[in-house]
Amino acid sequence: MHYKEAAGRFFDALIQNSTSSKFKQFFYKTRSTVLITLLIASAKDDEKYSLESILERIPRKLVSRTSVKYILDEAVTQKFYLKVKDKKDNRRRVYSINEKYEEEIVNLLVRYQTILKEMKWIAKKNKV
Length: 128
Fold this sequence. Notes:
Strand order of the largest sheet: 1-3-2
Order of helices and strands: HHHEHHEEH
Mean pLDDT: 88
Low-confidence stretches: none
Number of helices: 6
């Protein structure tokens, strides 16, 4: 397989995934929604992200405080994220991915991982 074929498959997967569900439409809405969703999804059970901790992790050059707040509020309203009191600090609110959408994230990651492995194999083959 040539890298162009793998790039085409990656493009097709992005397009297909971008419109296949309401959650994925939200996920791909902007670069910021992708970053925030992946960050929240990566949180360990005992270390969920709050607005402030999200702002610490994502550079301001990429997304403003106002945009992060808007994305969090939109995701909670649409029930893509859950917002709860932090177990360690009742003043903080932390976010997690609604369990209904965890499988969609896993499937996305598996699909992209498969394509990227193919591209890595092509790069090795072509010594790029």
